[in-house]
Amino acid sequence: MGFCMRSYRGLGCVLFLTLAVWAQDWQECKPEGDYSFNDVKAAIHRVITAQVYSSWDEKMFYRSGDLVAVAVLKTLDDSEMASPDHAKDVLRIIRSAFACPEYCVKVADDRRPRMTLLLLEHLNEITGGKMQTDIEEVRHFILQQALPASSHTNCQIEGIIHQNGVPIRVCTKG
């Protein structure tokens, strides 16, 4: 009996240590059918540096949502993002990330554009406002996409208000 208990404890320790080693790099974790943070960063780097935008990259961005903004910030420094060509690429990537958040983005928290909205503000600052129109258009698109379809059904009055320059959808139910 004592030998069996020690064997189970030993087996439990080995199993625990194995899981701990696998969990060391959270950036490599991949939920089923998803991409890791490192995959997203690599795709962003490839799109920005090589100017190559494949359907695989687009699919990865579609499924990543707000994670894309974090990956952009971790991949590019301000001087890279501030160049007009790279800023346009960043906006295109962000737009892809919120093309269909409700159905495509696997992680529910990444369906909301929290970091993405901060990134857009930062992008506007580092480009000196030169791309403000493009940035506002992407911000508007993202906010429209990020609201679930069910949030604006049965609206008596629906409209957009601007709060600190950010368009917000308003729905009053009857």
What is the CA–CA distance across the termini? 70 Å
State Rg. 21 Å
Fraction of residues in H or I helices: 55-70%
**Approximate shape:** globular
Low-pLDDT runs of 5+ residues are 13-33
Instruction: Enumerate the strands of the largest sheet in spatial order, edge to edge or round the barrel.
Output: 1-2
Per DSSP, the total helix count is 9
Q: Could you tell me the strand content as a percent range?
A: 5-15%
Strand-pairing-aware structural class: mainly alpha
Task: Sketch the topology as an H/E string, one letter per element.
Answer: HHHHHHHHHEE
Largest sheet, described in full?
2 strands, antiparallel
Summary tags:
174 residues; mainly alpha; two-stranded antiparallel sheet; 60% helix; globular
Mind explaining what this structure looks like?
- The chain contains nine helices and two strands, in the order H-H-H-H-H-H-H-H-H-E-E.
- It is globular.
- Helix 2 packs across helix 3, helix 6 (84-97) packs parallel to helix 9 and helix 8 (114-126) packs antiparallel against helix 9.
- The chain is mainly alpha-helical.
- Strand 1 (155-163) and strand 2 (166-173) form a beta hairpin.
- The protein has a domain at 30-149.
- A two-stranded antiparallel ribbon has the order 1-2.
Provide a compact summary of the structure.
This protein has nine helices and two strands, in the order αααααααααββ.
